[in-house]
């Protein structure tokens, strides 16, 4: 292989790495912006969660206090949080699948899935991997 061919190959590899790095950055941005909202069948409770399953908003219809007991309201809120978190996990899985081909994504995208755990931060050694 000539020197020119080696340089072209190196330039091609650098281009591919840069392209993949940009795609990963875009995926990270999309993941940070992920959210899902779940509304109860009766429309009384609506919950929005973020990419880590954190509750961002809980919206209650003003009539909820007349229609549901405290325990029913609590159960409805918890149910909507679970549904919205499941939606976010599904969206996250869909975003990451092209970057983790062949890996058991169902195991990776369980309730405790945390994308940042897969990334090594500059100047830090990788931490322990989450149990599978």
Automatic annotation (TrEMBL):
InterPro entries: YbaB-like_sf (IPR036894), YbaB/EbfC (IPR004401). One of its GO terms (molecular function) is DNA binding. Keywords: DNA-binding. SUPFAM superfamilies: YbaB-like (SSF82607). It comes from the Bacteria. Coiled coil: none annotated. It holds the Pfam family YbaB_DNA_bd. The keyword Hydrolase does not apply. Residues 24-50 are annotated as: Disordered. This is YbaB/EbfC family DNA-binding protein.
